[in-house]
Amino acid sequence: MTRYEADYIARTDGASDHLWEPLWQIRTELRDAEIKILRSGALRRLHYIHHGGASRINTHHTFTRLQHTLGVFSLIAYYCPDQEALRAASLLHDIGHGPFSHSLEGIEGMDHHEWTRDRLEGPELSGILTEHGLNPEEIWAYINGERPSLLRNSSGVLHLDHLDSLVRSAQTGGYLSIRPKDLLDCLTVIDENMQTDKETAEQLVLLIAEEAVLHCSHANIGVNAVLRQIAGQWLSDVKPEMELVADMTDSMLEQQLLSYPPTSARMRALLMESSRIHVTRERDQAPAHALEAEIDKLYFSVPQVEGKKITDISERARRTIADLQHRKGKYFVYWQ
Predict the structure, then answer these.
(1) Residue 147 belongs to what domain range?
(2) Cα Rg of the chain (Å, integer)
């Protein structure tokens, strides 16, 4: 068979016994359990959930939860090739995300952590895991950070879930200053934490800052606030079973919001006229009916250098993170 007769290299659906991840340029041989997980409905649904939520409406951030998941999995398999449970956890860490990812978090009943646990305990995934000697409880401990690992931790040290998001976002935005493949050569693992040199750590802090700027941008805040209002009304009026909402993709929810008369016009305007949405931090500059949006959390997990956080040894890194704190707080969103 010639290379022109072979199948496409970068498939996402578990049709092959290996996975090629194009951002990091990592080729991973897949275990039987991983192939079955990749083919499961729980994971396939993530290819129809946009990682950036509503910001895919008005920015280039159109990559999906599945693309991010495959990036994280490839990194885990690269650094921890023999940790079967951790590899499985990295494939499953985002399965609880509902339509539009984080955009609708905060609406009563929308809890991706709870939905993740529910899916792990459901017959499809629990059957795959137990068939291959994997413990769903151990998988859950990795996912929620109870068992610290390169996938997730609660220590404020950069882990691979966030690393993939930062690099993927920077690549999409066109401001990535280092090739992802070259970055791998600058990262090592010591005591379940990523370590690097000071220069690389400071570069990563700049990516962390850019991601925070994106989250606090008018482009991101505006469309997400409007979508949250529209979806909130539909949920309040229609009162669908939340289990059904949890299984929706972005397009499924879009169709509900477009076809429901009280939300149809606003949803169409959101999709087609997002440039009319304005955002301000000044209450007196916004009309009385403006929506309120609160940014109360930004992701500031930082890399380590010789066992110390870069913010403990670099004034530049410390100042970069400190300068972002003022972006937290209340914003006002309105149509013009």
Answers:
(1) 18-196
(2) 21
